[in-house]
Task: structure prediction
Amino acid sequence: MAILPIATVGHPELKIVAKEVTREELASAEVQQFIDDLIETMRHANGAGLAATQVLRHQRICAVEVENNPRYPYKPRVPLTVLVNPVVTFLDDDKFDNMEGCLSVPGIRGQVARNTRIHVKAWDRFGNDIDAEVRGLTACTYQHEFDHLDGLLFLDKVTDPGTLTTWDSFNQFHHDAFVARAKALVAKHGS
Ligand code: NI
Result:
């Protein structure tokens, strides 16, 4: 396995819309090796997720995993999930103003309005169907990763540039209020 370099904002390839993966491509040793590398890179960087786009591979593959994450200690646990060709449907109009960070936007967080109840269809890394309702803060994490596959960073969706903050300033000035809101969301949705 290998730790892959993660591209940062300004890299033109972060704007590329990734291509769908065929079953044959997914089954190949080369793509399976890539998925192992994607997971290892996500874990190495303490990401809650990582999309293929961020390591400059333009296929619709991303990974999500939250254990005891030092970047996001308030996030509920999410078991390792690899999503291939994900398709999202919003189940209602309820939104949460999420303070997001991204391995491709080092040092900065900002507020994005995310849907709190989504339906996700995808394949797992073996081509098995994933067909699930995802709620709460976890739904926000999923939407962030899917956006990468469409060439979008959270910066493209920030509702108010006035919410942009360094991680230091977030911790000093915004952490407590945000974590209280995030915990209420998690309590409501169980995730
Ligand atoms: Ni990201």
Notes: The first helix runs from residue 23 to 27. The radius of gyration is 16 Å. Residues 15-189 form a domain with the Peptide Deformylase fold (CATH 3.90.45.10).
